[in-house]
Amino acid sequence: SKRRKEMAKFREGLKKGDKIITAGGIYGKVKDVKESTITLEIADNVRITIDKNSVYANAVDSNTAAEATKA
Description:
The chain is 32% helix and 39% strand. The protein has two helices and five strands.
């Protein structure tokens, strides 16, 4: 329950320029945020629209955590 609330708060706080990871493992940069969808740039001039609920985590936090576990 607590984790679900934290994820909902994270998703509501997404803004243009944030780097995220989708539930499918796609890394990208937020280009636009709407009520229930996000436009994500996954490569130069390659954009996809995804449901907010498929956002998994902040890519910066995940990369930092992954690097910390390698050390």
